[in-house]
Every structure is written in structure tokens, then in C-alpha cells.
Amino acid sequence: MNENDHAASTPPRHPAARAAGLALGVVAGLALFARFAANRVERRVPADGRFIDIDGRRVHYLERGTGPAIVMIHGLGGQMRNFGYALLDRLSADHRVILIDRPGSGYSAPIAQANIRAQAAHVAAFITAMGLDRPLVVGHSLGGAIALALALDHPQQVGGLALIAP
Asked: N or C: which end of the chain has fewer CB within 10 A?
């Protein structure tokens, strides 16, 4: 059998198989690009605070000041720096202010379920791990919905609630 006979006996690839291979290649390329872009962003905008593991997931937070605790939860598409530029210095003069990146936002790792109640439970676990005694919880936008779910589902964790455009 020569080379031409082998080529004639090999059936041509089905168009669907070619399309699937192309799609797989595009997805792999996009995943590599996303990882490259994330690494580049992390180098240019390093994490401001510290990390704590909650249920095996990394939570990024920034803590400043002393006194009664205030936990601040940012909104959809945001990160903890949304509070840092205007409120952190003012509030930390008289309070222990803790800004957190919601699960899957900023430098916090995602959790298995990203719904409001699951994120509230994650924040409740964070409050426990930080040893906070019923802090004031401030939530903006989606963070407000999470703060409200936290107060409803875990009332023993919340001393007060402030919702900003929830």
C-alpha cells in the first residue's frame, strides 16, 4: 500500500468534528488569555489587604482602625476598593472597619454557589473566623442584598444593618 492508497482509505473528517475541534481550540485559547490577563492585572493592582481561608476558600479583606466593628460588603461588579476611597479613613478613626471582597470578586475566591444566601453564609463564617461580636454590616447594591440575607439567616452575627442603594 503506498501513500496515495492510505489517503484514499482514510475517510475525511466530518464537518462537525472539525467545528468541535476548532471550538475547543478557541475555548482553550481564551482560557489562556484570561489567565494571562488576570496575572497581568494582579501584578499591576496588587491586593491591598490580607487573606483568610473560610471553608477552604480564600477571602480578601482590608482592616483598619479600632473600636466597634463595621463590615462593609461591596456591590455587583465591584470590589472592596469601592469603599476605600471615601469611607475607610473617615470611619476607621473611631471604628474597626473591615472591607471584604465578596466571593468571586476582587481577590476573593469563588464559592460553589454564588447566590445571595450562600454568600451571606460565607460572610457569616468570615465574621465568626475574625472573632467579631455582632458588627454593623454595611452593604451596597448586591452587597446590600447579601447583608440583608445575612441579618435574616444569621441574626446572631449582626448587630446592625446599613443598606446603601440595595
From this structure: N
Rounded to whole angstroms, the Cα distance separating 65 from 77 reads: 26
**Residues 15, 149: Cα–Cα separation, whole Å:** 50
The whole-angstrom separation of Cα 2 and Cα 8 is: 10
115 DSSP assignment: S
Q: Which long-range contacts (CB under 8 A, 24 or more apart) does 29-37 make?
A: none
Residue 150 C-alpha cell reads as: 445575612
Q: State the cell numbers at 158.
A: 449582626
Q: For 81-136, how does the pLDDT look when each residue is reduced to its tens digit (9 = 90+)?
A: 888 878 899 999 999 999 999 999 989 999 988 899 999 999 999 999 999 999 99
Query: CA dist 138 to 62, 94, 114, Å?
Result: 15, 16, 19
Written as one letter, the residue type at 44 is R
49 with 81: CB under 8 angstroms? no
Residue linked to cell 440575607: 149
The pairing of beta strand 57-64 with beta strand 50-54: antiparallel
Q: Helix H segments across the chain? A: 3-9, 15-44, 81-84, 88-92, 116-129, 142-153
Sheet containing strand 96-100, strands side by side: 50-54, 57-64, 96-100, 69-73, 136-140, 160-164
